[in-house]
Amino acid sequence: MKKGFSILAFLVLLTLVLTACGGGAPTSAPASSGSAGGEEAAPPPTAAESGSAGGETATEPPAAPPANEAPADVPLMDGAYDIDIQRSGTQITYKVDADVQSVVDFYHEVLPPLGWEIKGPPDSVVGNIASMLRKNAADEQLTINMQYNPNAQFTVVTIALSRK
Questions:
Q1: What is the CA radius of gyration of the chain?
Q2: Strand partners, 115
Q3: How many angstroms separate the CA atoms of 29 and 27, rounded?
Q4: Contacts of 77 (CB under 8 A, 6+ apart)
Q5: Any idea what DSSP says for residue 157?
Q6: pLDDT (0 to 100) of residue 24
Q7: What are the boundaries of each domain within the chain?
Q8: Over the stretch 54-66, which tens digit does the pLDDT of each residue have?
Q9: Beta strands 91-96; 154-162: pairing state
Q10: E-assigned strands of 81-140?
């Protein structure tokens, strides 16, 4: 149990350090056109929603997205806000009004069809903190860390993507 907690603590700390050292000015996802003040920007479409060209598989890495958009194979949960996308979409932080287990369940459902599989330590959920590690066929790595704030009732999701 201590070893699992140590690994989780290390992953959370590493992600926070990488996010803090992101450099450059933060960018946020653009608001959808024609939205009224106070409305949240729509999350990027999943690969299933956007449709893929014939012959293209979910394990092929997508073309690099614009600097302020998440990659197509790294979906954000519906209702995401305070979205901060850095380093051409390889570091993403957002908040969502859901508990940690709901966020974990969301990623368990959407990541496998996009080519992301468990190829390392199992997911770790301890109280209000969770960590997930996934790899795809190109041996790219996706780390998702979540921490629930019980006072404000939202979860901060931090995603780190390592492309080959």
A1: 16
A2: none
A3: 7
A4: 43, 94, 96, 98, 103, 106, 157
A5: E
A6: 42
A7: 2-22+66-162
A8: 444 455 555 555 5
A9: antiparallel
A10: 81-86, 91-96, 124-126, 129-135
Number of Cβ atoms within 10 Å of the Cβ of 112: 13
143 by DSSP, 3-state: which? strand
Spatial CB neighbours of 53, under 8 Å, sequence gap ≥ 6: none
Across 123-136, average pLDDT: 95
For 76-111, what is each residue's pLDDT tens digit?
999 999 999 998 889 999 999 999 999 999 999 999
Helices (H), the chain: 2-20, 47-50, 100-110
Residue with tokens 């009732």: 153
For 141, which DSSP code? E
Residue 73: other Cβ atoms inside 10 A: 22
